[in-house]
Amino acid sequence: MEDKFVFDIDEFKRFANKKTDASAIQALRELCAFHIIAKTITFRVYWVNKNVFLDEKEMEFLKKRLKTRRKI
Predict the structure, then answer these.
(1) Per the CB 3.0–4.6 Å rule, which of 3, 12, 16, 47 could disulfide with 38?
(2) What DSSP character marks residue 43?
(3) CB–CB of 48/4 below 8 Å?
């Protein structure tokens, strides 16, 4: 099994409570910057860094970051 996913921008906007494509793309950039996901050569397909979800410290960081971002 490969750790890739196809990005559905409309589904992501609903999940992340984003109003525009631009804000969703900015959120994707943040996920890439934190090495949670990475672009592939295929449009809207991303690699998932599964280590983030297996490492307790990484998960705590991610939870805190998401909680902080939702307050803004």
Answers:
(1) 47
(2) T
(3) yes
Tell me what the mean pLDDT of segment 45-65 comes to.
77
C-alpha–C-alpha distance, residues 64 and 71, integer Å: 11
CB 16 within 8 A of CB 27: yes
Q: Is the pTM of this model over 0.70?
A: no
CA distance 63 to 8: 22
Tokens 């979800």 belong to which residue?
53
Measured CA distances, 65 to 30, 35, 57, 71 (Å): 10, 13, 12, 10
Ordered by start, the domain boundaries in the chain are 4-71
Q: Residue 71: what pLDDT?
A: 55
